[in-house]
């Protein structure tokens, strides 16, 4: 009887530890029933200003995990060459997997030029080195303990050693 009671109590303890305190948002982003990979999906928790963001996978699906319960949330999807889509006033319940699918429409527009400039600085990296490096001076090397010194120290620590 005690064994059965112990098993039941342990089972209750494990189930109480695994309580869920968040929600998830999942969905798919498409255009003409074709998935869009690499679209940016952002969920903004309006009261706190907390942003959760991800990008869509190759199949157009996305998953925003561990969002605060409640809301309202504004879920936004954007991708270059497409009109931005939003779902506003989304309320999330405890443990809920909210499904938010988006269909993007192409937007014609002219992208402006991107200009990248740089200035040469002192060369920090050496092309002949491919990993990290530590420079040790001669004096630092001379101060390092040798194996002979370490062996003598260890011999002195032996409890049966007679000095």
The CATH superfamily of the domain at 21-103 is Carboxypeptidase-like, regulatory domain
How are helices and strands ordered from N to C? HEEEEEEEEEHH
Global geometry: elongated
Please name the CATH architecture of the domain at 21-103.
Answer: Sandwich
Tell me what you see in this structure:
The mean pLDDT is 81. The chain has a domain at 21-103: Sandwich (Immunoglobulin-like). Strands 1, 2, 5, 8 and 9 form a five-stranded mixed β-sheet that branches. It has helices spanning 2-17, 138-143, 147-157; strands spanning 23-31, 34-35, 40-45, 50-55, 61-67, 70-78, 85-92, 97-99, 102-103. With 163 residues, the protein is an alpha+beta fold. It is built from three helices and nine strands, in the order H-E-E-E-E-E-E-E-E-E-H-H. Helices cover 20% and strands 32% of the residues.
Quick recap:
The chain has 163 residues and is an alpha+beta fold. Helices cover 20% and strands 32% of the residues.
Blueprint of the fold:
Elements: H1 2-17, E1 23-31, E2 34-35, E3 40-45, E4 50-55, E5 61-67, E6 70-78, E7 85-92, E8 97-99, E9 102-103, H2 138-143, H3 147-157
Parallel strand pairs: 1-8, 1-9
Antiparallel strand pairs: 1-2, 1-5, 3-4, 3-6, 6-7
């Amino acid at each position: 009887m005690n064994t059965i009671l112990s098993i039941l109590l342990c089972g209750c303890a494990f189930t109480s530890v695994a309580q869920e305190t968040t929600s998830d948002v999942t969905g798919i982003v498409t255009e003409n029933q074709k998935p869009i990979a690499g679209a940016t999906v952002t969920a903004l928790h309006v009261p706190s200003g907390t942003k959760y963001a991800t990008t869509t996978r190759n199949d157009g699906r996305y998953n925003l995990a561990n969002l605060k319960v409640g809301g309202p949330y504004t879920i936004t999807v954007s991708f270059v060459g497409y009109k931005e889509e939003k779902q506003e006033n989304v309320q999330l319940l405890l443990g809920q997997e909210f499904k938010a699918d988006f269909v993007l429409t192409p937007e014609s527009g002219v992208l402006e030029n991107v200009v990248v400039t740089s200035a040469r600085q002192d060369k920090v990296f050496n092309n002949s080195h491919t990993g990290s490096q530590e420079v040790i001076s001669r004096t630092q090397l001379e101060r390092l303990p040798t194996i002979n010194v370490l062996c003598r120290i260890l011999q002195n620590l032996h409890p049966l050693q007679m000095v």
